[in-house]
Design goal:
- The protein is mainly β and 364 residues long.
- It is 4% helix and 46% strand.
- The relative contact order is 0.16.
- The N terminus is likely disordered.
Length: 364
């Protein structure tokens, strides 16, 4: 069941992946650079008492913000909690678990204020209810034992969620399954490209296309991680491994045959021509694209290494190609990881002793 039958189109798209990967270094579609001083205003968000770092920061069109806070400045390991800010100046609110001690993670917030993530190894949605929250635990398709876990990485406005689950936490095994939880409760496991052993769905759009990662191992170290596209082609998924990470995607265009992707290679356009899905990098801002809104405005970070390993210069690349470098404190770095429809940007900074969540507000 894990290795669902692939669409015959996937082989055509996988062949294109090799050709396009070879052309990235000569792509001419670069973003227009703006030399004027940044017009955005930086707001640092308060952290709950005892926490010093924030990651997974996301913002919706109402300018509500969520993220995951930790007690270590490294941003990994240690005690972690999902947190919510009603607006950039609001006090942080820790989201609840069903039991204590609580370990949790918030990954995104939709335009109705519903938050996706995980609580004590269960995939959950937090629904706002007045001044409190109702916790919905999503179905785990295969809970083999009490070490099984699941994570919701995204939630649409209709309640559909995407993420992954693992039936058991066995060290050094590749068991993670990319999955979509339907608003009606149905669970769809996404197919893996031929030869790949597991994967994780990071973001989905209204057409149930998705982006994420897949992994492969030939039985010896190392394990190789690839970016992945899951394209909903009339109900049958085309799964495509890529040589760079893909992090977010837009809804499909009005004709239903194309969408944009924020990727480590830049902004990628995916479209269907006759019976073949194609893709190409159409804008390269000089750094990874981490999030993208429905209009195609993309945010990310410009840095020497991958954005997963540290901070850089956060940026906004508009759909029209204008590149704005977002302001930072002197000699500090940061990540832009979320963007609303009106171009409010959320992320986090790398300061000397902490990693606070941040929001960049556009000019009035």
């Amino acid at each position: 069941m894990r290795q669902a039958k692939q669409s015959t189109l996937s082989l055509q798209v996988m062949a294109l992946a090799v050709a396009f990967a070879a052309s990235f270094g000569t792509n001419d579609a670069h973003a227009q650079k703006v030399k004027a001083p940044p017009s955005y205003t930086l707001h640092l968000l308060g952290l709950p008492t005892g926490f010093v770092s924030a990651r997974d920061v996301s913002i919706n069109d109402r300018h509500e913000i969520v993220g995951t806070v930790r007690v270590y400045a490294s941003g990994s390991g240690g005690h972690a909690r999902a947190v919510y800010w009603a607006h950039p100046g609001a006090a942080p609110v820790l989201l609840p678990c069903l039991s204590e001690p609580c370990q949790s993670r918030a990954t995104t917030i939709n335009n109705l204020g519903v938050v996706s993530g995980a609580a004590n190894e269960q995939a959950v949605l937090w629904h706002p209810s007045g001044t409190s929250w109702i916790l919905e635990v999503l179905t785990h398709p295969d809970p083999q034992d009490d070490t099984a876990w699941a994570l919701a990485n995204d939630v649409l406005d209709d309640g559909t969620a995407g993420g992954s689950y693992d039936p058991t936490r066995v060290p050094w095994t590749l068991n993670e399954v990319p999955v979509i939880w339907g608003a009606s409760g149905a669970v769809t496991e996404l197919p893996l490209p031929e030869g790949f052993l597991d994967g994780s769905l990071r973001r989905i759009n209204d057409s149930r296309d998705g982006v994420g990662t897949v992994r492969i191992n030939d039985g010896t170290d190392p394990t190789y991680v690839y970016g992945a596209l899951w394209i909903n082609d009339g109900g049958a998924y085309v799964s495509v491994p890529l040589t760079y990470f893909v992090n977010d995607l837009t809804p499909r265009a009005a004709d239903g045959s194309s969408f944009l992707v924020a990727a480590d290679a830049g902004r990628v356009r995916v479209w269907k021509d006759a019976d073949t899905w194609n893709y190409v990098v159409d804008a390269n801002p000089g750094g990874a694209g981490i999030a993208i809104n429905a209009a195609g405005d993309m945010v990310g970070a410009i840095m020497k290494g991958g954005w997963q390993t540290g901070g850089g210069t956060p940026y906004l690349l508009t759909a029209g190609g204008t590149l704005t470098k977002l302001p930072l404190p002197s000699r500090m770095t940061g990540i832009a990881a979320g963007v609303s429809s009106d171009r409010w940007v959320a992320g986090w900074l790398y300061l000397k002793t902490e990693q606070p969540a941040a929001v960049w507000a556009p000019p009035n």
